[in-house]
Amino acid sequence: MTSGEIIGDSTSVPKALTGAEQKETSRYRQGFSLDRFIERIKDIKELLAFAAILGGACVWVVNYFATADQLAELSCSTKLNVRLLSSSTNLNHTQELAKEGMSEYRDQERLLDEAKKGGHTQDAIAIQNRMDDLQAQTASFRTTIDDQEREGKKALVDLPRFSGRVSVLVD
Predict the structure, then answer these.
(1) Contacts of 80 (CB under 8 A, 6+ apart)
(2) Is 26 exposed, middle or buried (0-12, 13-18, 19+ CB in 10 A)?
(3) Backbone phi, then psi, for 11, in 5-degree steps?
(4) Disulfide engineering: 124 pairs with which of 18, 71, 101, 115, CB 3.0-4.6 Å?
(5) Rounded to an integer, what distance in angstroms lies between the CA atom of residue 56 and that of residue 162?
(6) Closest by alpha carbon to 86, among 161, 157, 156, 148?
């Protein structure tokens, strides 16, 4: 019998393999073959593309809503910080104006005493009117200072509610 001759109905004797054919056969039998892998991937490429799109969409949705929630918290905390700083700055400015008003009021008191001693009634009346204006202005400053202190305390009370969550965002 010669190689390749048919024995019976369905069996044949294998013919001798050349060196190149033996190399190809041994690579095929080794297990992983890039060509076979690519062939299998081609068969399911639509399914893989769908899975990748679905996974990407899920990641996007989670990140979008997590970021939106974090931004809302950060925005609220930032507004509280701005309110606190604004209140503090306004308070300092109003306190300076009140100090200047009180200083001018003392100067006007001194001038009023001098005007009364010197018999300058018209000057004394003008100085007294100015002192009344300064007194009303000082009372207004006191009211503003009280309001700003209340606003600052309110912002300080509200701020700790967000500080723990915001520190996580900043880290």
Answers:
(1) 155, 158, 159, 162
(2) exposed
(3) -110, 145
(4) 115
(5) 31
(6) 148
Hey, what are 47's tokens? 């399914």
Instruction: Supply 94's token pair.
Output: 């109003």
DSSP the chain: --TT-EETTTEEPPPPPPHHHHHHHHHHHTS--HHHHHHHHHHTHHHHHHHHHHHHHHHHHHHHHHHHHHHHHHHHHHHHHHHHHHHHHHHHHHHHHHHHHHHHHHHHHHHHHHHHHHT-HHHHHHHHHHHHHHHHHHHHHHHHHHHHHHHHHHHHHHTHHHHHHHHHHH-
| Alpha-carbon gap, residue 78 to 166, rounded angstroms | 9
pLDDT tens-digit readout, 11-68: 454 556 566 666 555 555 556 678 888 888 888 888 989 999 999 999 998 888 878 7
Q: What phi and psi values does residue 7 have, to the nearest 5 degrees?
A: -110, 120
Beta bridge partners of 7: 11
Does pTM top 0.85 for this prediction?
no
